[in-house]
Amino acid sequence: xxxxxxxxxxxxxxxxxxxxxxxxxxxxxxxxxxxxxxxxxxxxxxxxxxxxxxxxxxxxxxxxxxxxxxxxxxxxxxxxxxxxxxxxxxxxxxxxxxxxxxxxxxxxxxxxxxxxxxxxxxxxxxxxxxxxxxxxxxxxxxxxxxxxxxxxxxxxxxxxxxxxxxxxxxxxxxxxxxxxxxxxxxxxxxxxxxxxxxxxxxxxxxxxxxxxxxxxxxxxxxxxxxxxxxxxxxxxxxxxxxxxxxxxxxxxxxxxxxxxxxxxxxxxxxxxxxxxxxxxxxxxxxxxxxxxxxxxxxxxxxxxxxxxxxxxxxxxxxxxxxxxxxxxxxxxxxxxxxxxxxxxxxxxxxxxxxxxxx
Length: 358
Description:
Layout: E1 2-7, E2 12-19, E3 22-31, H1 37-41, E4 49-53, E5 57-58, E6 77-79, E7 82-83, H2 96-102, E8 106-109, H3 113-123, E9 126-132, H4 137-146, H5 156-159, E10 165-167, E11 175-179, H6 185-192, E12 197-201, H7 207-212, E13 217-220, H8 231-240, E14 245-249, H9 251-260, E15 264-280, E16 286-297, H10 299-302, E17 307-313, E18 319-324, E19 329-332, H11 346-357
Parallel strand pairs: 3-4, 4-6, 5-7, 6-8, 11-12, 11-13, 13-14, 14-19
Antiparallel strand pairs: 1-2, 1-9, 2-8, 3-9, 10-12, 15-16, 15-17, 17-18, 18-19
Helix pairs in contact: 8-9
């Protein structure tokens, strides 16, 4: 099918469409990872965004579902230079095109992703519209311009769990209450491997409801959109700080900052990929990390709330981790659960928080 991708700055590119016909809108973002497209497409943090891969060939090892980070594709649509039609892997069950079709989502191939990536780096992440089954460039651009900006969208409500659920651990192991803002499956798996008792709760859970669960620690997960939309999770941090250990990952890092009284801001085009270097000030080591975020913590505001920046991105100096000076509160901006890789920080983060609580 014909397809057209229109961007709010007036750019429009025509390519080959696949998946669901019709119009889909979202913020166009790019990821630099070579592999891990299954994990990225099913990461709830991509809700509200049209995901474009900078690597020119996507889908060469197919799709099998074992690496999915949620129940299905959460990105609004997929943009690639080339979608591999015949994957080669013994575990492959379907091609990337067949996967997008089975998820009733839309995609476009055959476009100049390098040009679109350079444009995004220069102008910042922009609203976009993908129309599958049409090559009307003017319509695509108009649809993009009419779409709400991501800071106005409540995306967390689309991906959080509807009801609380529990996972039993080992005997008298610590009890973690996990606030699900769009949690990736491997975060749960990383905690399960360490034997902790888990209670996963929706994003709308109130501070007193968390207290009633008698947690030894609270973990605030990753998720999509502007952290200022997560008002209940922010209140949990502000009201429970000093009474229980609090940890955060990705969006959870930003929520903890807001809950302590620090500030966040929107990055120009964000960090998305599996090759982001992060320097840990405590050890002096640089770790290569997997990331997916469009917002960041304001470094200057952290010191004013009795906290410190513990880790920074080597590329641009943005905050990658914060720690409180005297309360047991710690968080990271990257994804230590390592799906997709690399594996540098999975044990470092999860072993550390479980050890701290014990």
